[in-house]
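Sample entry (615 residues):
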Amino acid sequence: MRLLLRPAHLFILLSYLALSAVPFVPLLLGKPVEQPWQLLGIELVAWVAVWALFKRPAYFHWLLIPAFLALPTEIYLFVFYGQGISTHHLGILAETSPREALEFLGQKVWTMAAVMIGVAAWWVLCFRAARQTRELDWHDGSRWVALAMLVLLAAVSAWGYEFGIAAASAGAGTSASASASEEAEDEASDPARAAVAGARTLRLPGPPLPHWARVPVEPKAFIESWPFGLAARGYDFYKERRYLSQLNERSASFSFGARQLDGTAAPEIVVMVLGESSRYDRWSLNGYKRETNPLLGKEGNLVALSDVITSVSATRLSVPVIISRKPATQSLKDGFSEKSFITAYKEAGFKTWWLSNQISFGQYDTPVSVFAKEADVIQFLNLGGFTNNSNFDDVLFEPLKRALADPSPKKLIVLHSLGSHWNYSQRHPKEFDKWQPSLFGIDKPVYTDLKIKPQLNNSYDNSILYTDWFLAQVIGDLKATGQLASLVYVADHGQTLYDGSCKLAFHGHNTQYEFHVPAFMWYSEQYRERYPAKVAALHKNRKARLATENFFHTMLDVADIRYPDDLPEWSFLNPDFKLHKRVVDSYGWTNYDNATMKGDCREVMDKGKPQKQDK
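Predicted structure, serialized as tokens:
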């Protein structure tokens, strides 16, 4: 004990303890920590493993450089956003240029520089202390015992990973797969493997691991641990980068051969705003009794579209259909062999921006970000996430202003907002908490509790009110340019909100509330003068049966961009607009216009036989 209390030894051990304590920072903020005992156990095993393998701190201290450098960022994200570093944050670091970083940080850059210098000095002092002592070396027989136990633990884990884990008891069903990957789900649904979970890909013969021998640790707990869990996050980031690269390769050589018909260099601004989780009937612009659109309702050149449906109620699946020619019936498949309208605009001489308050990496986001990467300027500004505190959508204003001030005469700007994504009350500041009681200030409400139905609905309406303000500011910025400008808004999907006697909330429930989405187009007076026929067609088709598949073609028509095999009749700005069959992901591909809406949930049920889906 006296050995450990020596100043140099105590400094090393307390430094390592401080790194290990990082996941418990939320406790200091009055917030719970998930699976705390698993975290403690994992961190203890990780330290034992590293110390046993390397024998002395001086040999493994180099491995801790990323943890020391990431420590300030991890704590900052915990304090302000309720979560630690994720693959998304690593993506931001990898793809943000020094100039963009300086613009984002402003005067904070000096504070950050001072903190990083202090952390670097801490690492150096700790390394110096580790080099100068041999008394923390692990060289007795217990080290070999520890190594043998670690090998046994690794062997048991590998066996369960490859051959699966038997159910707790007969008829108890399968346990959850350790990784919850799509492959594991497919295998767990196979009757031949119904008694095990986690069976993997080598297909070697072998019995499943007995349930009592399973390692009682979830992989997520290791990812959340410190400092060695950072390696798992880095590996996840590497996998996402590879996946993104593979998606890019499918369309790398694709070209539309697009051109703008008039071919002039006259200034022109086209903005598309992708909304999130916004529901058609909660907009007063569409007849809702609450005035959730007080500002947009005053815009004279705004045309609301009354009958737009999205085919799939999931962002990662619906957005590709909006921005590319990907058919709705292929939306459940990953990737697409073509590029989005962003590339068509670039071919026609426009400079392009993708400015996002969503996240760029992760299993739910990469299929969208692969299209975002077509833009000349790409910025992902969400430091929080979806279900945590995050930036409000007004974080997009500054990069939007810089885009509008860019000297390029022709501009396409895509704004991907966080809109009304759950938690609704965390999508707007206090001054928009109009309808009460609400969930404002409640960090993690129990959303499955029907008792909070009034608060949940009030918070949702408040988020729409904030969206109204956000969009009105964007339109105001476009007006201020005095140039030919237009803005198209469409939401990716809607939400079910415990409607009537319906006991469902959020999305993924095959309801009309999730498929029927708000959409509109705004145009400047200069746009009306340049394209009077398009404006007339817009008014004519404002009540037409539209689908998100129409928006790719409309976005090109907005700027009079054409390409050899285009479909101008799919644009609602075209006087010769033609209707097409609209399908939604409800028990197969259901014909939306030949369906009934069942019960208070308004579940979409095809009157005939839904079309079979390919996944």
